[in-house]
Amino acid sequence: MENNKTQSKVLSIKNVTESTYILRIERNGFEFKAGQYLVLSIPDERKAREYSIYSAETDDFIELLIKEVTPGELSQELKYLKPGTKVQISGPFGFFILKDEDIQQKKPVVFVATGTGISPFRSIIRSNPDINYKVLLGVRYKNEAYNKEDYESNRFVLCTSRDKDLDFNGRVTDYLKQNNINKDALYYLCGNSAMVDEAIEILEEKGLAAENIKTEIFF
Ligand SMILES: Cc1cc2nc3c(=O)[nH]c(=O)nc-3n(C[C@H](O)[C@H](O)[C@H](O)COP(=O)(O)OP(=O)(O)OC[C@H]3O[C@@H](n4cnc5c(N)ncnc54)[C@H](O)[C@@H]3O)c2cc1C
């Protein structure tokens, strides 16, 4: 797949929580495999940041799920861009994708995310709705279950560390510790490095082969 640089207009910005929003931009022929990320910048400014693609391979726009980080340079600025503003995207980058043979064979896959780390998984699931998946999403509060309705309810576990009486009260790594794992499944881990490191340790301790674990670290 060729890397390309494209200028795209902002189509909309939709807040999904107080601090997290979906930035929708023109696709302009930008090709990618679900699970990959792009690098986004505002023309004539020096900052550029990586964002996993949230939308599907088949959508005619690109969506990114972005958390406004404070203090943070780009994530705050992007939130207030007006529709019609041009941004630059380059890519696609990364290998955090499902192999074609795993998609065809419906290999079980467990997607483990914290916060906006759900982004590549939504793209993979929306692009390949027939896969045999389970999502474990770790957030603090229930309102951070971004687009929960996009996942089959019996395949989605929300792990909330602050809100109680939901699917699971605790961190996503606590869920992994307290539940059996499927040793035949692939485990895709995405989010902050502390979660990813801890999850690898738990999964390997429970007997999962290292080659069944794939990771993408946001920060
Ligand atoms: C491969 C890859 C994919 C990424 N995909 C996404 C994505 O889909 N959505 C997304 O919101 N971010 C994503 N990020 C993080 C993103 O690139 C930026 O780091 C983030 O938006 C902060 O940029 P900033 O300029 O606002 O803050 P900066 O000034 O660059 O950083 C401020 C601080 O915020 C921390 N930080 C970065 N991201 C987060 C976060 N999500 N939550 C809490 N603290 C954070 C950084 O470690 C740093 O200490 C991804 C990063 C990588 C490497």
Question: What keyword list fits this structure?
Answer:
Rossmann fold; binds flavin-adenine dinucleotide; six-stranded parallel beta sheet; Elongation Factor Tu (Ef-tu), domain 3; 18% helix; six-stranded antiparallel beta sheet; alpha/beta; globular; 219 residues
Q: Any overview of this molecule?
A:
There is one protein chain. The chain has helices at 74-79, 100-104, 119-127, 172-178, 193-205; strands at 4-15, 20-26, 37-41, 48-52, 61-67, 86-93, 109-114, 133-139, 156-160, 168-169, 186-191, 213-217. It has two domains: 4-93, Beta Barrel (Elongation Factor Tu (Ef-tu), domain 3); 100-217, Rossmann fold. The chain is globular and about 50 Å long. Helix content is 18%, strand content 34%. The longest helix has 13 residues, at 193-205. The chain contains five helices and twelve strands. α4 (172-178) packs parallel to α5. The strands form two sheets. A six-stranded antiparallel sheet has the order 4-3-6-1-2-5. Strands 10-9-8-7-11-12 form a six-stranded parallel sheet, sandwiched between helices. α3 links the parallel β7 and β8. The protein is of the alpha/beta class. It binds flavin-adenine dinucleotide (FAD). Flavin-adenine dinucleotide (FAD) binds at residues 37, 47, 49-52, 64-67, 69, 72-76, 115-116, 119, 216, 218-219.
